[in-house]
Known about the structure:
The structure is a single chain. The protein has two domains: 1-82; 86-129. It is of the alpha+beta class. The longest helix has 25 residues, at 9-33. Strand 3 (90-95) and strand 4 form a beta hairpin. It has a two-stranded antiparallel sheet. A two-stranded antiparallel ribbon has the order 3-4. The chain contains three helices and four strands. It is flat, with a radius of gyration of 18 Å. Helix 1 (9-33) runs antiparallel to helix 2.
Amino acid sequence: MDECCSVKKEWLWAFALALLLSSAALGWMAWERGEVELYLFLIFPVLKADGAYAAVAFLLAFASLMVMFFSFWTGVRGEGLEPERRTSAAGVIMIGPIPIVLGSDRRTTIITLVMALVVLMIIILFLVQ
């Protein structure tokens, strides 16, 4: 790839974060206007959206996920030899209110567990209202 056409992963991640934050802001506005409702289907949280703010918020969240997905396969080729970096990965499977955390090392697993608990608290706060 040419220098002018290459996209750095950091810029893609920053763009994805900007999309996600704007989605959260529009989602909050839609929540305040009553355009978004949160329900439980069996034990799974389900969002129902009625209105323009909610629709744009969901579209921006989807676009953010697509940019994140795209950023895994693009980027600048290595110009020189870089020192080897150890990669680690982690993930969360939310089965209703129960987070199941998987990780390749202790540090990443703990960070992912904290993020899962924050998401769980946000869901509980929305359900209480």
